[in-house]
Design brief:
By secondary structure, this protein is of the alpha+beta class. The chain contains four helices and nine strands, in the order αβββββββββααα.
Length: 217
């Protein structure tokens, strides 16, 4: 009896092991649209927050289109952060500057990302002439996917660059934020129900095997 029960538990665990990665992969897929997401700038290794974290404004904007992700960030103290590079072409490539505000000393940049699930290792160069400071640094961009919020419905025909150049006013931003609080971060699909049915099937199969063994003995 104990052997049969162990077999049932093993089969259930095995099915769950196959189902969970599939479900997580589906949940991580973003529909075409624009999202906001919080993040931190970490040191080159580990999870310690870098001093450079204060140079990046939060949250970031993520534009999902045709399975591709475009990340847009605002850097403050822009004159100090003279270089900002991300992985690409087998090495590191410069991020694209969308706009610069010299008065506020900020600039908006964007880059392509394959995924936000893992930290994105990046390179920056910091120069502060008044303090005779000139150094290169490696940082990590760690995104909090649980904080992701939808800023729009399905994507429009505009490209990511065109969308960013037309920055919304403060009033439109407030309206957008209030209207999106009711939207789910990642709309649920039938994947959750499918997982539940598979779990029920696994439990029923285990119970059936246990009952069959009891009848024979």
């Amino acid at each position: 009896m104990k052997k049969m029960m162990r077999l049932s538990v093993f089969m259930t665990a095995l099915l769950l092991a196959f189902m969970l990665p599939f479900s997580n992969a589906q949940a991580a897929t973003l529909k075409d649209g624009t999202y906001s997401v919080n993040y931190n700038v970490l040191k080159a290794e580990g999870n310690a927050v870098s001093m450079a974290n204060d140079y990046w404004l939060k949250p970031a904007k993520v534009i999902a289109k045709n399975g591709k992700l475009t990340v847009q960030m605002t850097i403050k103290n822009s004159s100090w952060v003279t270089e900002f590079k991300v992985p690409g072409n087998g090495g590191y490539v410069d991020t694209t500057v969308l706009s610069t505000n010299k008065k506020a000393n900020t600039r908006i940049v964007q880059f392509q990302a394959q995924s936000l699930s893992k930290p994105i290792k990046s390179k920056i160069h910091v120069t502060v002439k008044s303090a005779d400071y000139d150094h290169d640094y490696t940082i990590q961009l760690k995104f909090d996917e649980s904080s992701m919020k939808s800023l729009s419905s399905n994507s429009t025909n505009k490209s990511a660059g065109e969308a960013e150049k037309q920055q919304p006013s403060k009033e439109s931003t407030k309206t957008s934020d209030s209207s999106t609080t009711k939207q789910e971060e990642n709309p649920q699909t039938g994947d959750t129900n499918q997982t539940g049915w598979l779990l029920v099937l696994a439990l029923c199969s285990g119970g059936f095997l246990a009952r069959k063994w009891i009848i024979k003995h």
